[in-house]
Amino acid sequence: MGCGNSRETTVSPRKTCMQPRDIEDVQNIWAIVAGQKEKFGVFVYNNFLSNEKEVRKLFPRLVMENGKEKFSVNELELRRHALLVMDGLGLAVECLKDVDKLRHFLHIVGVRHSRVGVKSEMMMKLYPATEDALRKLLGRNFNNRIRRAWRAFFDYIVDCMKTAMIQEERNACREQMKSMVK
């Protein structure tokens, strides 16, 4: 009845996050990004909203649709949201060596996203815009090693958030079923 499989399954993110070299690479690049995180975040979200039309509906305070192909962005809300996400990304970078703390933080973020209607399959759609921003920021210093490290980091973030989102959806479904039985 829309609640998925009645059989209980365990969903858990990968136990380890990244290799030590990947962690070091992500932290070093984040040190560069952090100095211009608003500009970086705005670039990511402008790119994301331009290329992923179906996610615009998730940002009603941010995006005003002017027709099928045209939209405008509330710049103040865009900067606010971009900074919020960049601050969260910075916290995730800080927690890279403490996987339990990182998983806990990403669980909270995943639950929040689930509660505002973000579906778990939408999470990876942000990565191409993030990689484009890294490529633009780093120029020739954006190499395959950096790309792989950031992709592993992003994949881990998405994996943890998806786990939380799926659990939250199951919990909401259980509550809905309980209320129907009463």
UniProtKB/TrEMBL annotation:
GO terms for molecular function: heme binding; metal ion binding; oxygen binding; oxygen carrier activity. Residues 17-166 form the Globin domain. Transmembrane segments: none annotated. Keywords: Heme, Iron, Metal-binding, Muscle protein, Oxygen transport, Transport. InterPro entries: Globin, Globin-like_OT, Globin-like_sf, Globin/Proto, Mb-like_M. The keyword Iron applies. Belongs to the globin family. This is Globin. It comes from Littorina saxatilis.
